[in-house]
Amino acid sequence: MQVNPIQLFDAESSTYTYILSAPDGSGAAIIDPVDRHLARDMAHIARLGLQLTHVLETHAHADHVTSAGRLRAMTGAKACVPSGCGIPPAEVQLEDGDLLRFGAREHIAVIHTPGHTAGSMCYLWRGNLFSGDTLLVDGCGRTDFQGGSAADLYDSVTRKLFTLDERTRVWPGHDYQGQSVSTIGWEKRHNARLAHRSRDEFVTLMAALELPRPRLMDVALPANRKLGLAHGI
Amino acid sequence: MQVNPIQLFDAESSTYTYILSAPDGSGAAIIDPVDRHLARDMAHIARLGLQLTHVLETHAHADHVTSAGRLRAMTGAKACVPSGCGIPPAEVQLEDGDLLRFGAREHIAVIHTPGHTAGSMCYLWRGNLFSGDTLLVDGCGRTDFQGGSAADLYDSVTRKLFTLDERTRVWPGHDYQGQSVSTIGWEKRHNARLAHRSRDEFVTLMAALELPRPRLMDVALPANRKLGLAHGI
Fold first, then answer.
1. What is the pLDDT of residues B134-164, one digit of tens each?
2. Of A1, A25, A181, the CB nearest to B48
3. Where is the Metallo-beta-lactamase domain positioned along the sequence (chains A, B) (predicted)?
4. How far apart are alpha carbons A113 and A123 in whole angstroms?
């Protein structure tokens, strides 16, 4: 049965944060929380009466600082990160194929999708794919740092994501144009970068992008490897 | 079972638009769509593969123009409005207590909540209250035009909304601070204007607000009485 997450937005970095709430009220998880919205996110949790048990990261972000460490301290939630992202303070280091359980009967399937970064992962919950910066609505993440690889991203998307049920909802890590949700079926047929394009064509396209270095990268990346906590754990 | 809507935002007027999608994929409705986001909203409907059958208004808005008429023309959806809001081109004129059906087994309960405007209504679907400008997160709509009445708003909220199940999620028509969703229980206990305040105290508070006239009122209100269509139907 289709159950949507609650989608929250950071206008500064155009980042989406997601709250996943068990429909029976038995627990909740948050994906990719942003440090400057800690109070907002805690207020949502309080207003909705949620018990937050898991904080997930899709990867070590280069464009904003996570609030995972502080959320963990305030709620007792476990910090859960991709094992290949170099975030040692997180107690749960996720591997491809893991099933993360929360609440009475919720589970999140962990899908390793290298490409945007070498360690990037996507999360699948009740027909909803949280695609991080791997697959965006009508686009995809950049592949030019943190072990990124256009060839890997192409394989991750075409072999692991585009093989999911076409009705799976795609909730991206960012959007810059108000496109907040899509489906696997639509992206397979229409994605401006990935649909109807060979692996070689995609690699050539990505190599030609010449993107500027993320403004916050030198601050955000070291901070995020400590879950956003200045002094580690 | 708790199923969330998809919440979309207009940053210019801080308006929330909601897409309600039947979990079994059998149909969809949209509440309070904004004209400048017609393309965005149509793109969401296309990407999600939805069949839009109903366009709802919570009231005749004074701060933005609706896209209801154009959405109706593009999708064949029925325009559904509160009967007391003076929007004659809408084919469905809703009354308090109506049950609006969409999809195979969805229904939206219609609750007349005068106060922000005389005709304002709230809609209840699967444990989600779409509260328009009647009840906002930690606040409420103004009551100084379009037949507005602080006393009526107090009665609507305290007698009709605060008597709903405390876990009912409250999805407001606007928010100006990133507060996107709440619950009846939280608002009963904490709402800055309505919790722990008598009717007389509330009326006095609202009378003292001295709010400026909405900038777009002279444009938006006549347009919205025609479903946003310049020349009526």
1. 999 999 999 999 999 999 999 999 999 999 9
2. A181
3. 14-174
4. 10
Range of the domain at A43: 6-209
CA distances from B224 to A38, A138, B6, B86 (A): 37, 32, 23, 9
Strands A182-183 and A169-171: antiparallel
Question: pTM of the full predicted structure?
Answer: 0.95
Does any domain span residue B232?
no
- Strand B6-10 relative to strand B15-21, pairing: antiparallel
The alpha-carbon gap from B5 to the nearest alpha carbon of chain A, in Å, equals 7
A152 is a domain residue: yes
Neighbouring C-beta atoms of residue A225, cutoff 10 Å: 18
Which two three-digit tokens encode residue A64? Answer: 């904003």
Sheet of B99-102: strands edge to edge?
A: B99-102, B106-112, B121-125, B128-130, B169-171, B182-183
Give the whole-angstrom CA distance, residue B86 versus residue B146. 10
* A28 within domain boundaries: yes
* A1 is a domain residue: no
* CB < 8 Å to A27, chain B: none
For B15-73, the pLDDT digits (tens) are: 999 999 999 989 999 999 999 999 999 999 999 999 999 999 999 999 999 999 999 99
- Least CB-CB distance to B21: which of A2, A5, A7? A2
Cβ within 8 Å, pair B178-A2: no
Alpha-carbon gap, residue B27 to B21, rounded angstroms: 6
Question: CA-to-CA distance for B5 and B19, rounded, in angstroms?
Answer: 6
Task: Report the DSSP beta bridge partners of residue A9.
Answer: A16
Instruction: Record the tokens describing residue B136, joined without a space.
Output: 């906002």
- Looking at residue A38, its amino acid is L
Q: Which two tokens stand for residue A200?
A: 């070689």
Q: Which of B58, B45, B214, B64 is nearest to B142 (CA)?
A: B214
Which residue of chain A has the CA closest to B1?
A: A23
